[in-house]
Amino acid sequence: MRSALFSAENLEKESAQPGMRLQNSKMLKIELNGECMARTGAMVAYQGQVQFQALGSGGIGKFLKQKLTGEGVPLMKMSGHGDVFLADLASDVHLIDLEPGDALSINGSSVLAFDSTLQYDIKMVQGMGMLSSAGLFNCVFTGHGRIAVTTKGTPVVLNVDQPTFVDPQAAVCWSASLQTGYHRAEQLGLGTLLGRRTGEAFTMSFAGQGFVVVQPSEEPPVQGSGQQQSSGGLGGLLGN
Predict the structure, then answer these.
(1) CB of 194 closer than 8 Å to CB of 201
(2) I need a surface site. Which of 39, 111, 163, 181 has the fewest CB within 10 A?
(3) CA-CA distance, 137 to 66, in Å (whole number)?
(4) 5 Cβ contact list (under 8 Å, min separation 6)
(5) Nearest partner of 73 among 119, 38, 105, 30, judged by Cα
């Protein structure tokens, strides 16, 4: 049988080292030898002896926060030995290695998988108050390990060395050391242009020294309630 489908670039990539690696730009491969955490429902294929355990939002404390905020990351624990392939609606997948002392804030809807050695918590975005439903909370990851995040399209990494403003739905992740806030779009002279898709008239601000990853896409607005859909919002990812 012959086809360009079977070319080398599409064949499974093998490695002698366990852990996360990109199978291609849209798919993550985890060579599992122990445990790893992943977004519920992200598995598209696996080989070997692998068990999957749903964890909700990751503990009773985070579960209570999710119920109060409408935010959280529904997780499943994968354990065993084998190869697991993860994807999210053909979004681009990127790997980030955290070192001891690092802290990264991530839009929960962008979390695909992370090493079980990492810790995360749901925290309020500073300066937001109750002004907007675009996203009050985000997920802060710390520890030593690798995390896979997704973006809808090729992102830009902004170096925050001057006041920086981003649509809340386009912010993927940022340095946890940055000072964040929210501003009415009218105050920036933008009117309601920023809100034409998200239904929000606010923009998110960043100050300090660090970076912000911005995707070239906004999540769709929620239908019929003040909370975001499971795929949207800062820290979005409601359990299905």
Answers:
(1) yes
(2) 163
(3) 10
(4) none
(5) 38
pLDDT tens digits, residue range 65-115?
A: 444 444 456 789 999 999 999 999 999 999 999 999 999 999 888 999 999
- Give the C-alpha separation, 57 to 67, whole Å: 10
Upper half-sphere CA count for residue 69 (Cβ side, 13 Å): 29
Tokens 């030995």 found at: 81
Burial of 106-117, coded b for 16+ CB within 10 Å and e otherwise, reads: bbbbbbbbbbee
Question: Phi then psi for 141, rounded to 5 degrees?
Answer: -105, 135
Residue 196 DSSP SS3: coil
* CB-CB neighbours of 92 under 10 Å: 17
Q: In angstroms, rounded to a whole number, what is the distance separating the alpha carbons of residues 170 and 133?
A: 14
100: tokens are: 């001891």
The rounded percent of the chain whose pLDDT value lies above 70 is: 69
Please choose, from the candidates 137, 153, 46, the residue with its C-alpha nearest in 3D space to the C-alpha of residue 89.
Answer: 153
What value, to the nearest 5°, has the Cα angle with vertex 239 and ends 234 and 24? 70
**Alpha-carbon 94 to chain mean position:** 10
For residues 153-186, one letter each, b for 16 or more C-beta atoms within 10 angstroms of the residue's C-beta and e for the rest, the string is eebeebebeeebbbbbbbbbbbbbebebbbbebe
User: Could you tell me the pTM of the whole model?
Assistant: 0.78
Distance linking the first and last C-alpha atoms of the chain = 41
Q: Look-up: residue for tokens 């809807």?
A: 109
Burial class (CB in 10 A: 0-12, 13-18, 19+), 225: exposed
* CA pair distance 53, 36, nearest whole angstrom: 11
